[in-house]
Design brief:
Strand content: 25-35%
CATH class: Alpha Beta
Number of domains: 1
Number of helices: 7
Largest sheet: 9 strands, mixed
Order of helices and strands: EEEHEHEHEHEEEEHEHH
Oligomer: single chain
Distance between the termini: 74 Å
CATH topology: Rossmann fold
CATH superfamily: HUPs
Pfam families: ETF (PF01012)
Strand order of the largest sheet: 9-8-7-10-6-1-4-5-11
GO molecular function: electron transfer activity
Subcellular location: Mitochondrion matrix
Helix content: 25-40%
Family: Belongs to the ETF beta-subunit/FixA family.
Shape: globular
Protein name: Probable electron transfer flavoprotein subunit beta
Number of strands: 11
Length: 270
């Protein structure tokens, strides 16, 4: 049984290695996806999640027992874990997949994270998952919600402010909605997904980068977790959007309508 009040929080932060946000995306020659032979970095929303976990420890001090980061990706994804460790996380888990393996879908990632959480029960469990609201490569924005659903945990998405009360064993999250702000309160354990305005991630200092090299990273495979990350959907073809053409000036509304009809945009009345 989980105690009624959480005294020491174990925080899990899932992160993803994605194409760097500053890189111009191009379709590969085979038209099976985008060219991945470019600079990669941590998904920006995940950087915010790592920063928030570290800030949470700075606020609660000795009430946060551990911050663990986890990623699913090829061997190069270990560099992303090291970045998170340099920002202040304590340890990492690398669910390693082959370089040629297709990217797992949100449901597969959620099931893998559930398996990681189940394994962590032997080490004190996980009380709070903080993760980016979406990855900038697929923009799915589904993994956090799916993880909370299959775990049966509370969830608070698109967080712009997070306050955790370990005495009451709950988290209060401010969310940005169309009409303004919404405040939700949920019992721990919970899944919180981060929005852009939650914080500004810090730069890892050189001493912390050196320290991160000594922090432990556990390597596991999907089979170790008992999950299958093979995508259900198959991408048939990826193409770039058509090139935009320059605009043209017209002298009258009638000429505009005629041009639109020629382009097959305006309906032609009989």
């Amino acid at each position: 049984m989980r105690p009624s009040a959480v005294r020491l929080l174990n925080v899990l932060v899932p992160i993803k290695r994605t194409i760097d946000y500053a890189v111009k995306i191009r379709v590969n020659p085979q038209q099976t996806g985008v060219d991945t032979n470019v600079k990669h970095s941590m998904n920006p929303f995940d950087e915010i999640a790592v920063e928030e976990a570290v800030r949470l420890r700075e606020k609660l001090k000795d009430q946060v027992k551990s911050i663990k980061v986890v990623t699913i990706g090829p061997p190069k994804a270990a560099d992303t874990l090291r970045t998170a460790l340099a920002m202040g996380a304590d340890s990492g888990i690398h669910v390693e997949v082959p370089e040629s393996a297709p990217a797992p879908e949100p449901l597969g990632v959620a099931k893998a994270l559930r398996a990681v959480i189940e394994r962590e029960k032997e080490k004190g469990g996980v009380d709070l998952v903080i993760m980016g609201k979406q990855a900038i490569d697929d923009d799915a924005g589904q993994t956090g919600q799916m993880l909370a659903g299959i775990m049966g945990w509370a969830q608070a998405t698109f967080a712009s402010k997070l306050v955790v009360d370990t005495g009451k064993n709950e988290a209060t999250v401010t969310r940005e909605i169309d009409g303004g702000l919404e405040e939700v309160r949920c019992k721990l354990p919970a899944v919180v997904t981060t929005d852009l305005r939650l914080n500004e991630p810090r730069y890892a200092s050189l001493p912390n980068i050196m320290k991160a090299k000594k922090k432990p990273i556990e390597k596991v495979s999907p089979s170790d977790l008992g999950v299958n990350l093979t995508p259900i959907f198959e991408t048939i073809k990826v193409t770039e959007p058509p090139k935009r053409t320059g605009g043209q000036k017209v002298e009258s509304v009638d000429e505009l309508v005629a041009r639109l009809k020629q382009a097959g945009i305006a309906a032609v009345k009989s």
